[in-house]
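Possible regression after last week's pipeline update?

I re-ran a chain I had predicted before the update to compare outputs. Posting the input and the new output here so someone can diff against the archived version. Not blocking, just want to make sure nothing changed silently.
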Amino acid sequence: MSSSNPWMNQRAHRERRGAGLARLTCAALGGLACTATGLAAQDWSTVTASRQLSGEREIEVQVEYGAGVLDLRPGEPGTLYRMELRYDRDLMEPQTHYEDGILEIGMDRVGRGIRMGSRDGSGRLDLELSPEVPLLLDLEFGAARADLDLGGLAIRELNVETGASDTRIEVSMPNAVELELASFEAGAANLVATGLGNLNAERIRLEAKAGKVTLDFDGEWQRDADVDLDLDLGAVELRFPRGLGVQLVVDALLTSVDAQEMFRRGDSYYSADWDGAETRLTMEIDAHIGAIDVVWTP
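New output (post-update):
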């Protein structure tokens, strides 16, 4: 999957559509640069890069991806990361750099057109990260379709910011390290996050605007957690596993609240087993013009 030089396994594939001549200089990937000449109004290229583990104790990963398909998942043992990026050479230039435990992946705009990838799979970023090293993840993407499989990764910090995206986040396995804060910010997005109990997070923060959000707190709970939810012009479905003690502190304006199987005391809703629950989740909700629905799962 990789060579002794982590940047030597780059490749470029070109697809010709229409006529015209375009010339583009590739970004330096870890110190190497390449120059490519292509024909077409749309000239697609694929760049790959990978690196083997070499004693790293922690990795900071910063990803900025404008549009297209983003797929992130755990990688193979012994591999620090592996990236494959497909992009339109006429419009975008990849910027990827790794040094001293910091991996940066982004795209610079070079053309005047408005194409920045598409949700049909034309533009795509596939990223695999090591499950053997603690990670500080900072992910920002715009009009993308994102599938983030975080199960099995050792996540110490997590920040996810999305634009008008269709995003699915799955935490299928417990996080091996403690996560102080998991932060999610979603624009006009459809966001589904499952297995949030596996994050091993002390605090979870979500800000959602003009979108539809599903938060499933199933998983292997290791400690109590606090959740802050800020909802504007949107709908959220909260899915809780039975046996988890839940308190919802709600400050809502023009927002419907359907708190199934919960009793109300003051401005809070409590699960029936709150007093005797071994693990508790306290959620503070600030909602404006939206809907909140609670669902209990086996």
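Follow-up from reviewer: compared with the archived run. The chain has no helices and 21 strands. Marking as no regression found.
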